[in-house]
Amino acid sequence: MPKDTSLEPKxxxxxxxxxxxxxxxxxxxxxxxxxxxxxxxxSANIAPLSGYTGRIYGVISPHAGYRYSGRVAGHSYKAxxxxxxxxxxxxxxxxxxxxxxxxxxxxxxxxxxxxxxxxDTETIETLKQNPLFQTRNDAFTREHSIDMQMPFLQIVAPQxxxxxxxxxxxxxxxxxxxxxxxxxxxxxxxxxxxSSDFTHYGPNYGYIPFRENxxxxxxxxxxxxxxxxxxxxxQKFFEHLEATDDTICGAMPISVLIEAIPKSAVxxxxxxxxxxxxxxxxTNSVSxxxxxxVQAGKAVEFQGVEIVDKETQKFLLKLSRETLKRHxxxxxxxxxxxxxxxxxxxxxxxxxxxxxxxxxxxGCIGSIIxxxxxxxGVINNTINAASHDPRxxxxxxxxxxxxxxxxxxxxxxxxxxxxxxxRLGRDGIILEKDGRRALFLPQVxxxxxxxxxTTLSHLAMKAWLPANAWKQGARFQTFQAHVFHExxxx
Length: 490
Known about the structure:
Largest sheet: 9 strands, mixed
Distance between the termini: 84 Å
CATH topology of the largest domain: Protocatechuate 4,5-dioxygenase, Chain B
Strand content: 15-25%
Helix content: 25-40%
Number of helices: 15
Number of domains: 2
Oligomer: single chain
CATH superfamily of the largest domain: LigB-like
Shape: globular
Structural class: alpha+beta
Number of strands: 20
């Protein structure tokens, strides 16, 4: 007699897909995993999005082991962090199962070391009605391309449900039809993630279109692929693949993504890197590319103030660079005779020193209130940014020449009645609540392309508060800043 399961607890009947690569492609220790992914998010610089204030429709993110692709993937997910996302459609290629069409899971949750993320079963049922989609759990049992996105999503969109889809071989017409089906789901709180590495170069992959200038040629291949992708036309992208034989493993997911989003969207490149660059060997190399697809909108621009003259700016930047060089080499710090210091550098203002590496944040620490002359504040905060920012490892002597220095001199903070009095681009923001406090410099929101709500949500999280904590009971102060960079004075 068959067993009657109708009275069993619902939990016992729940189907869960368990991460196939936790413990190999990434750590299975939840604390270490969260710390690693958080470090990638914190170091990511999404300044290219600062020209756009509209919504993000989707991103392309790599799926190699986090050791190789995590830093690039962090840029894609930082672009999504703080957004009001309730559903994420994850498109991954089929690496292990020969497949035509698109596979749907028969499960209600996906489990990683960070816990379970709910699968949007209602959306799965809707897609089942389309003949291009088929239920194939065997497509998910080994597939890393989907799983590598899940831990990032659990951090940046913890309340969202996911729609995991393994994309097999498609024609251009299939990609357009699949994109049309997903376009109907693309409401204001839905985004699409296309999981893809880019060019796989070398004898291991059977692809050696060039033998010289490998780094430059791999970047050119990626740029050519980006140009085709940015047309938002699967036909153009397929033509790039046919012309170059480019080994982009997630070509089918990318094709569906660009057909699903509005043709008015803009493709924005965020970060490119290669495993060859990471390990210092291009014999075999895989390329990684973070790309966001956004709605065009008017950008918020940074509106700085003038506090010190050009002579003082040059002096402070030179002093910061000399301090950084000596500090990371363990040498005595520069000795400064106050008689040789420009008069503006003797003023007492709050000052922050920011270090960036190839455009990405590498350290930033400062003082809000001016308790010492500017030149001393620059020395102390250069050291702090290089060695005491808890988000980063200390700067090494080898990487010092690659760093760009930015100095921000702050006006005294003033209380404001509410967050509605804050003006992005002009105001730096200090948030205080329940004994916690966090600060953003005025240039942060324009660089990240954030609106006020997104900015305040990130600021609350920086203070280790819930993302919506700014809405009630928080105290705000604002200030302005004079910001200058080494690149302006070379």
